[in-house]
Design goal:
Shape: elongated
CATH topology of the largest domain: Alpha-Beta Plaits
Order of helices and strands: HHHEEHEEEEHEEHEEHEHEE
Strand content: 25-35%
Number of strands: 13
Number of domains: 2
Low-confidence stretches: 103-108
Radius of gyration: 22 Å
CATH class of the largest domain: Alpha Beta
Largest sheet: 8 strands, mixed
Oligomer: single chain
Number of helices: 8
Amino acid sequence: MEGLKPLLEEIIKPNTRFTFETLKKKIKDLTKEQIQLLVNEGFIMKSFSIRDPNEGIELYKVRNQKELEFYRKSKPKEKNKDTGIEYSLEELVIIEMYSLANPYSVYNGLEPISLAEQEDFIIFACDLVSFSEDLSASQLTQFKNLGIVFSRVAEECNIKVNEMFGIPSGDGYFLIFQSANADVIFNFIDTVSEYIIDKGLALPMRIGVHSGPLYIIQHKNGAKNAIGNSINTAARVMSFGDEKHILVTKDFYSIKIKGSNIENNFHECGVAIDKHNHSYELMNYYHNNIGNKLKPEKVN
């Protein structure tokens, strides 16, 4: 088995995926059992490619077996954007794909190659309420499902890959929107909320939104990260909320929302104080069945 690893490292370059059949053509004695042992060991990662049954084009990618199970339960439909043809789950082709879990370095391609300050991002911070107080298998599934929901809604809202990226935060996510248009973000929030309600998903989420400059880190493997005080502020604003609250600072409201066609969905909320004794004047976003009309417990 140890002699097999160098061969696979030579074939599977960073950020590439192969089917078993393609690997078998390059390593004639390779067996499915060997690949599965390397998956179990953590040397190889197995993902799933969801493909057009006619064109063979990848329409969606699922990262692991648990996500695939959730994907199947959601009874998805995928559309080929080039042909306009939509396929049901029964029609889609699901192919196992293999990649190296840790090619070449302990960083797994996360070595930073650039750091640049850019202005006026909008930051969406969310977490699953009480997630860290009662960590369980079901909550881990909730966390994975949340990422799938964000991906699906971003596609539904026609948010392109270069317009938003996500950063997992342990019990939630930061979504960094590279658009300064608040209407885009709150349309995304509305659609996420409606999707969760329509699908009956158990995702007890709270949200905080803020804007400002960030340092964007570009990693060797193409991934992005971000650092800056604006992220900290979005997280603190979120932390003042209870389940289903969608909170912003009054400064954010004045700069980004006031005068827009969604300003009437924001309501005076009160003042909250963080552990550093900094105060935040907050606005609560809710309308129809979106958000939480009640005053957050942590707000005076």
